[in-house]
Amino acid sequence: MSTRKHKVLPKAETLIEALPWLTRHHGKTVVVKFGGNAMVDEELKAAFAQDVVFLRHAGLKPVVVHGGGPQINAHLDKLGLVSEFKAGLRVTTDEAMDVVRMVLAGQVQRELVGLLNRHGPIAVGMTGEDAHTMTATKRYAEMDGERVDIGRVGEITEVDTGAVQALLDDGRIPVISSIARSADDGDGNGVYNINADLAAAALAAALGAETLIVLTDVEGLYADWPNSDEVISRLTASELEKLLPDLASGMVPKMEGCLHAVRNGVNTARVLDGRVQHSILLEIFTDEGIGTMIVPDEGERE
What we know:
There is one protein chain. By secondary structure, this protein is of the alpha/beta class. The chain has helices at 9-25, 42-57, 69-78, 94-116, 162-169, 196-207, 237-243, 252-262, 279-285, and strands spanning 29-34, 61-66, 85-86, 89-90, 123-127, 134-143, 146-159, 173-177, 179-182, 191-193, 211-216, 234-236, 268-273, 292-295. Helix content is 37%, strand content 25%. Helix 3 packs across helix 4 (94-116) and helix 6 packs parallel to helix 8 (252-262).
Protein backbone atom coordinates (compact mmCIF):
# COMPACT_ATOMS: atom_id res chain seq x y z
CA MET A 1 0.00 0.00 0.00
CA SER A 2 1.63 3.24 -1.12
CA THR A 3 1.82 6.27 1.13
CA ARG A 4 0.26 9.40 -0.28
CA LYS A 5 2.78 12.16 -0.86
CA HIS A 6 1.26 15.35 0.44
CA LYS A 7 1.77 18.55 -1.52
CA VAL A 8 2.70 20.43 1.63
CA LEU A 9 5.66 18.14 2.43
CA PRO A 10 8.25 20.69 1.17
CA LYS A 11 6.98 23.07 3.84
CA ALA A 12 7.85 20.54 6.53
CA GLU A 13 11.29 20.05 4.98
CA THR A 14 11.86 23.80 5.11
CA LEU A 15 10.94 23.87 8.79
CA ILE A 16 13.31 20.97 9.51
CA GLU A 17 16.12 22.79 7.68
CA ALA A 18 15.53 25.74 9.99
CA LEU A 19 15.70 23.61 13.16
CA PRO A 20 19.49 23.74 13.83
CA TRP A 21 19.50 27.47 13.16
CA LEU A 22 16.55 28.01 15.51
CA THR A 23 18.45 26.08 18.16
CA ARG A 24 21.68 27.98 17.58
CA HIS A 25 20.12 31.44 17.68
CA HIS A 26 17.57 30.87 20.45
CA GLY A 27 17.84 33.54 23.12
CA LYS A 28 20.46 35.49 21.16
CA THR A 29 20.29 39.19 20.32
CA VAL A 30 20.13 40.17 16.65
CA VAL A 31 20.56 43.80 15.62
CA VAL A 32 18.98 44.66 12.26
CA LYS A 33 19.72 47.85 10.36
CA PHE A 34 16.65 48.77 8.34
CA GLY A 35 17.22 50.86 5.23
CA GLY A 36 17.22 51.16 1.46
CA ASN A 37 14.25 50.25 -0.74
CA ALA A 38 12.83 48.16 2.08
CA MET A 39 11.93 51.47 3.74
CA VAL A 40 9.79 52.83 0.91
CA ASP A 41 8.18 49.80 -0.75
CA GLU A 42 4.95 48.85 1.03
CA GLU A 43 5.26 45.09 0.40
CA LEU A 44 8.90 45.05 1.51
CA LYS A 45 8.06 47.02 4.66
CA ALA A 46 5.32 44.55 5.55
CA ALA A 47 7.62 41.58 4.88
CA PHE A 48 10.35 43.15 7.01
CA ALA A 49 7.95 43.57 9.92
CA GLN A 50 6.85 39.94 9.58
CA ASP A 51 10.49 38.79 9.62
CA VAL A 52 11.32 40.76 12.77
CA VAL A 53 8.21 39.51 14.58
CA PHE A 54 9.04 35.96 13.47
CA LEU A 55 12.51 36.31 15.00
CA ARG A 56 10.97 37.39 18.27
CA HIS A 57 8.44 34.54 18.36
CA ALA A 58 11.17 32.06 17.39
CA GLY A 59 13.01 32.93 20.60
CA LEU A 60 15.51 35.51 19.33
CA LYS A 61 15.81 39.07 20.62
CA PRO A 62 15.65 41.45 17.65
CA VAL A 63 16.65 45.11 17.87
CA VAL A 64 15.92 47.40 14.90
CA VAL A 65 18.08 50.44 14.12
CA HIS A 66 16.93 52.64 11.25
CA GLY A 67 17.91 55.64 9.24
CA GLY A 68 15.62 57.37 6.78
CA GLY A 69 17.60 58.54 3.78
CA PRO A 70 14.79 58.56 1.19
CA GLN A 71 12.32 60.24 3.55
CA ILE A 72 14.87 62.83 4.68
CA ASN A 73 15.76 63.63 1.07
CA ALA A 74 12.08 64.09 0.19
CA HIS A 75 11.49 66.45 3.10
CA LEU A 76 14.62 68.47 2.40
CA ASP A 77 13.50 68.82 -1.23
CA LYS A 78 10.14 70.18 -0.09
CA LEU A 79 11.97 72.81 1.95
CA GLY A 80 14.32 73.66 -0.90
CA LEU A 81 17.37 72.33 0.97
CA VAL A 82 20.10 70.49 -0.92
CA SER A 83 20.96 66.88 0.00
CA GLU A 84 24.73 66.49 -0.11
CA PHE A 85 26.92 63.51 0.72
CA LYS A 86 30.66 63.31 1.31
CA ALA A 87 32.50 60.01 1.74
CA GLY A 88 29.13 58.27 2.00
CA LEU A 89 27.91 60.49 4.86
CA ARG A 90 25.14 63.09 4.77
CA VAL A 91 26.30 66.68 5.20
CA THR A 92 24.06 67.86 8.05
CA THR A 93 23.66 71.59 8.69
CA ASP A 94 21.81 72.81 11.79
CA GLU A 95 18.74 73.34 9.61
CA ALA A 96 19.03 69.88 8.09
CA MET A 97 19.49 68.37 11.57
CA ASP A 98 16.05 69.62 12.56
CA VAL A 99 14.62 67.81 9.54
CA VAL A 100 16.59 64.63 10.26
CA ARG A 101 15.38 64.55 13.86
CA MET A 102 11.76 65.16 12.88
CA VAL A 103 11.68 62.63 10.04
CA LEU A 104 13.48 59.83 11.87
CA ALA A 105 11.69 60.05 15.22
CA GLY A 106 8.38 61.46 14.04
CA GLN A 107 7.77 59.68 10.74
CA VAL A 108 9.95 56.66 9.97
CA GLN A 109 10.09 55.27 13.48
CA ARG A 110 6.38 55.69 14.12
CA GLU A 111 5.48 53.91 10.88
CA LEU A 112 7.83 51.02 11.63
CA VAL A 113 6.57 50.65 15.19
CA GLY A 114 3.03 50.61 13.82
CA LEU A 115 3.85 47.86 11.31
CA LEU A 116 5.41 45.69 14.01
CA ASN A 117 2.58 46.28 16.44
CA ARG A 118 0.02 44.97 13.96
CA HIS A 119 1.24 41.60 15.21
CA GLY A 120 0.87 42.44 18.90
CA PRO A 121 1.97 45.09 21.43
CA ILE A 122 5.66 44.33 21.13
CA ALA A 123 7.53 47.24 19.50
CA VAL A 124 8.72 50.34 21.37
CA GLY A 125 10.26 53.34 19.60
CA MET A 126 13.15 55.40 20.96
CA THR A 127 16.09 57.42 19.68
CA GLY A 128 19.75 57.20 20.56
CA GLU A 129 19.19 60.33 22.65
CA ASP A 130 16.77 58.56 24.98
CA ALA A 131 18.29 57.39 28.27
CA HIS A 132 21.67 58.49 26.84
CA THR A 133 21.69 55.30 24.79
CA MET A 134 24.14 56.77 22.27
CA THR A 135 26.62 59.57 22.90
CA ALA A 136 28.72 61.02 20.09
CA THR A 137 31.34 63.59 19.23
CA LYS A 138 31.70 65.49 15.97
CA ARG A 139 32.83 63.42 13.02
CA TYR A 140 34.75 64.62 9.98
CA ALA A 141 34.85 62.96 6.57
CA GLU A 142 38.10 61.95 4.90
CA MET A 143 38.31 62.88 1.21
CA ASP A 144 41.53 62.60 -0.80
CA GLY A 145 43.50 62.59 2.42
CA GLU A 146 41.85 65.80 3.64
CA ARG A 147 39.59 66.23 6.68
CA VAL A 148 36.22 67.69 5.62
CA ASP A 149 33.62 69.28 7.89
CA ILE A 150 30.20 67.67 7.30
CA GLY A 151 28.25 69.54 9.98
CA ARG A 152 26.22 67.86 12.71
CA VAL A 153 27.36 64.34 11.96
CA GLY A 154 28.59 62.38 14.92
CA GLU A 155 30.82 59.46 15.75
CA ILE A 156 29.57 57.30 18.61
CA THR A 157 31.87 57.33 21.61
CA GLU A 158 29.67 55.65 24.20
CA VAL A 159 26.67 53.30 24.24
CA ASP A 160 24.50 52.75 27.32
CA THR A 161 22.47 49.61 26.67
CA GLY A 162 20.37 49.81 29.86
CA ALA A 163 17.11 50.99 28.30
CA VAL A 164 17.44 48.68 25.28
CA GLN A 165 18.24 45.67 27.45
CA ALA A 166 15.29 46.41 29.73
CA LEU A 167 12.96 46.37 26.71
CA LEU A 168 14.46 43.09 25.49
CA ASP A 169 14.10 41.54 28.93
CA ASP A 170 10.43 42.56 28.84
CA GLY A 171 9.93 40.78 25.51
CA ARG A 172 9.75 44.00 23.49
CA ILE A 173 11.35 44.92 20.17
CA PRO A 174 13.30 48.20 20.47
CA VAL A 175 13.12 50.38 17.34
CA ILE A 176 15.88 52.96 17.51
CA SER A 177 16.40 56.10 15.42
CA SER A 178 20.04 56.85 14.60
CA ILE A 179 20.38 60.12 16.50
CA ALA A 180 22.80 60.56 19.40
CA ARG A 181 23.24 63.07 22.18
CA SER A 182 26.28 65.30 21.83
CA ALA A 183 29.23 64.98 24.17
CA ASP A 184 30.63 68.22 22.71
CA ASP A 185 27.90 70.56 23.98
CA GLY A 186 28.32 71.72 27.54
CA ASP A 187 24.65 71.33 28.47
CA GLY A 188 24.36 67.92 26.82
CA ASN A 189 21.29 69.03 24.87
CA GLY A 190 22.87 68.97 21.41
CA VAL A 191 22.35 66.09 19.01
CA TYR A 192 24.20 64.48 16.13
CA ASN A 193 23.04 62.66 13.03
CA ILE A 194 24.61 59.19 13.06
CA ASN A 195 24.98 56.97 10.03
CA ALA A 196 22.51 54.16 10.75
CA ASP A 197 24.92 51.41 9.65
CA LEU A 198 27.51 52.61 12.15
CA ALA A 199 24.90 53.16 14.87
CA ALA A 200 23.63 49.59 14.44
CA ALA A 201 27.18 48.24 14.58
CA ALA A 202 28.03 50.15 17.76
CA LEU A 203 24.84 48.97 19.43
CA ALA A 204 25.40 45.36 18.33
CA ALA A 205 28.88 45.40 19.84
CA ALA A 206 27.68 46.98 23.09
CA LEU A 207 24.86 44.44 23.44
CA GLY A 208 27.14 41.50 22.67
CA ALA A 209 24.80 40.54 19.84
CA GLU A 210 25.03 37.22 18.06
CA THR A 211 24.77 38.90 14.68
CA LEU A 212 24.41 42.25 12.92
CA ILE A 213 22.23 42.33 9.81
CA VAL A 214 22.50 45.27 7.40
CA LEU A 215 19.80 45.59 4.76
CA THR A 216 20.84 47.39 1.61
CA ASP A 217 19.95 47.73 -2.09
CA VAL A 218 22.54 45.31 -3.46
CA GLU A 219 22.87 41.52 -3.21
CA GLY A 220 25.91 41.75 -0.96
CA LEU A 221 29.56 42.65 -1.37
CA TYR A 222 30.66 42.10 -4.95
CA ALA A 223 34.01 40.44 -5.67
CA ASP A 224 34.96 42.74 -8.57
CA TRP A 225 32.36 45.46 -9.10
CA PRO A 226 31.53 46.75 -11.74
CA ASN A 227 33.33 44.09 -13.78
CA SER A 228 31.46 41.21 -12.15
CA ASP A 229 28.24 40.72 -10.21
CA GLU A 230 29.62 37.75 -8.28
CA VAL A 231 28.76 38.13 -4.59
CA ILE A 232 31.27 37.19 -1.90
CA SER A 233 29.39 34.84 0.41
CA ARG A 234 31.86 34.88 3.31
CA LEU A 235 35.00 36.73 4.31
CA THR A 236 37.02 37.42 7.43
CA ALA A 237 37.55 40.76 9.13
CA SER A 238 41.11 41.01 7.77
CA GLU A 239 39.96 40.21 4.24
CA LEU A 240 37.30 42.90 4.48
CA GLU A 241 39.76 45.45 5.85
CA LYS A 242 41.93 45.01 2.76
CA LEU A 243 38.94 45.65 0.48
CA LEU A 244 37.70 48.80 2.23
CA PRO A 245 39.87 51.39 0.38
CA ASP A 246 38.48 50.29 -3.00
CA LEU A 247 34.78 50.11 -2.12
CA ALA A 248 32.15 52.49 -3.48
CA SER A 249 31.51 55.35 -1.04
CA GLY A 250 27.98 54.18 -0.26
CA MET A 251 29.22 50.76 0.84
CA VAL A 252 32.00 52.07 3.06
CA PRO A 253 29.90 52.91 6.18
CA LYS A 254 28.10 49.55 5.90
CA MET A 255 31.30 47.55 5.72
CA GLU A 256 33.04 49.72 8.32
CA GLY A 257 30.12 48.94 10.61
CA CYS A 258 30.37 45.21 9.93
CA LEU A 259 34.11 45.31 10.57
CA HIS A 260 33.63 47.17 13.85
CA ALA A 261 30.99 44.69 14.96
CA VAL A 262 32.99 41.50 14.40
CA ARG A 263 36.12 43.09 15.83
CA ASN A 264 34.19 43.91 19.01
CA GLY A 265 32.50 40.68 20.01
CA VAL A 266 29.70 40.19 17.47
CA ASN A 267 29.95 36.67 16.02
CA THR A 268 28.80 37.48 12.49
CA ALA A 269 27.81 40.52 10.42
CA ARG A 270 25.68 40.06 7.32
CA VAL A 271 24.90 42.38 4.41
CA LEU A 272 21.61 41.40 2.74
CA ASP A 273 19.56 42.54 -0.22
CA GLY A 274 16.58 44.29 1.36
CA ARG A 275 14.80 44.22 -2.02
CA VAL A 276 14.20 40.48 -1.52
CA GLN A 277 11.13 39.74 0.56
CA HIS A 278 11.92 37.84 3.78
CA SER A 279 15.67 38.13 3.16
CA ILE A 280 16.30 38.05 6.92
CA LEU A 281 14.61 34.67 7.33
CA LEU A 282 16.34 33.28 4.24
CA GLU A 283 19.72 34.33 5.63
CA ILE A 284 19.32 33.19 9.22
CA PHE A 285 17.24 30.02 8.90
CA THR A 286 18.49 28.36 5.71
CA ASP A 287 21.71 26.47 5.03
CA GLU A 288 22.71 28.53 1.99
CA GLY A 289 21.93 32.09 3.06
CA ILE A 290 21.66 34.86 0.49
CA GLY A 291 24.08 37.68 1.32
CA THR A 292 27.65 38.37 2.41
CA MET A 293 28.68 37.20 5.88
CA ILE A 294 31.67 38.68 7.71
CA VAL A 295 33.27 36.68 10.51
CA PRO A 296 36.06 37.52 12.98
CA ASP A 297 39.59 36.41 12.23
CA GLU A 298 40.47 32.99 13.64
CA GLY A 299 42.23 34.38 16.70
CA GLU A 300 39.35 36.76 17.50
CA ARG A 301 36.54 34.19 17.58
CA GLU A 302 34.90 33.03 20.77
